[in-house]
Specification:
By secondary structure, the protein is an alpha+beta fold. It contains six helices and 23 strands. The N terminus is likely disordered.
């Protein structure tokens, strides 16, 4: 039975200047630096920016419980602002993760479905179709999930479809003792870091995004190796895009492997892409997450790239992922 939550009073504190007070929908919102706190009767939660250029931690919520409408709206606003939200200590079933994910948007099919693998995903039959299992674990010699234990290079999810996802939700079930960290890179900050001359050069350009390779560089099922990147089968998306909700511009790189800038010869395309990707080096615009069992991360796929460190394949790593439908970048 769901717990009863009483929405009787709110004390909202957020990063908008010490002492400032706002009125919204008849409630007083008292603003102080860095912390956003809401009280629901005797229950409360807080949203605190992480010690990084992006990301915030949400404390005080059990995501197994239904969210009050105001709570769901506040979380969605925080997601758009901070780009990555961290919830620790969660123990969600797949059905509970699916229900929680829907507060951020309509769910998208997993990549195995989007790419129409002839042999299906290989996941266990009891796994709901909305869930992607990300794991190195094998049972009876067969993987129970995707991506294994190797490094996953910088990428945005499913950039190789016409309408890439708006977001991803990843829940940690089993974690190795070391390795497997996930990092996120702010692509709006990345665009702003480019020299003006380079921004002007790429403003009219689009890049084709190839579906044949996974984020670990492995050839996907049902695909043949690509010999000419200009002939990759993915869609072309602008290199500079506008976020459909925040209206902030960012650099849409997708992933480096087999990418091709439309209208250039391959050598010129590779040179320009290498120059752009060079700005992702270092940690100026990065939050790196060290996982604990029970962590759940929600990220805005339109505003960040992400990557994963490799880890020892003798240790188990099991994550369950949901993905949110998006729109065509423009």
């Amino acid at each position: 039975m769901a717990k009863l939550r009483l929405d009787v009073k709110k004390d909202y504190t957020h990063q908008c200047g010490a002492g400032k007070s706002l009125k919204m929908k008849g409630h007083a919102y008292h603003c102080r630096a860095k912390i956003f706190r809401i009280h629901y009767g005797l229950m409360s939660y807080r949203i605190t920016p992480l010690n990084a250029v992006l990301g915030a931690e949400v404390e005080g919520l059990d995501l197994r419980d239904p969210l009050a409408p105001d709570t769901a709206s506040a979380l969605r606003r925080a997601w758009l602002e901070h780009k990555v939200l961290l919830f620790r200590g969660q123990t969600l079933t797949d059905e509970e993760q699916i229900a929680f994910s829907k507060h951020f948007g309509e769910l998208e099919a997993p990549v195995m479905t989007l790419l129409k693998y002839k042999e299906g995903s290989g996941q266990k039959s009891e796994i709901p179709p909305e869930i992607t299992v990300v794991s190195n674990v094998k049972e009876n010699g067969k993987p129970i999930g995707q991506l294994g234990n190797g490094e996953a290079f910088w990428h945005s999810d499913s950039n190789f479809i016409e309408d890439p996802p708006s977001g991803g939700i990843l829940h940690a079930k089993e974690i190795p003792p070391v390795g497997g960290n996930t990092a996120f890179l702010d692509t709006a900050a990345l665009l702003e870091a480019l020299p003006e001359s380079l921004r002007d050069r790429i403003a009219p350009l689009s890049c084709k995004h190839d579906p044949s390779l996974s984020s670990t560089g492995s050839l996907r099922k049902d695909f043949e190796p690509l010999t000419d990147v200009s002939e990759n089968r993915g869609p072309a998306h602008p290199l500079i895009v506008t976020h459909p909700e925040t209206r902030r511009k960012s650099l849409f790189l997708g992933r480096r492997l087999n990418a091709y800038i439309v209208g250039l010869d391959v050598a010129e395309s590779d040179s320009l892409l290498d120059e752009l990707w060079g700005y992702t080096e270092g940690d100026r615009f990065v939050y790196e997450h060290t996982w604990r069992v029970g962590d759940l991360l929600v990220w805005d796929n339109r505003a960040v790239l992400h990557r994963r460190d490799a880890f020892d394949d003798s240790h188990r790593r099991v994550m369950h992922k949901t993905v949110l439908k998006g729109s065509r970048p423009h």
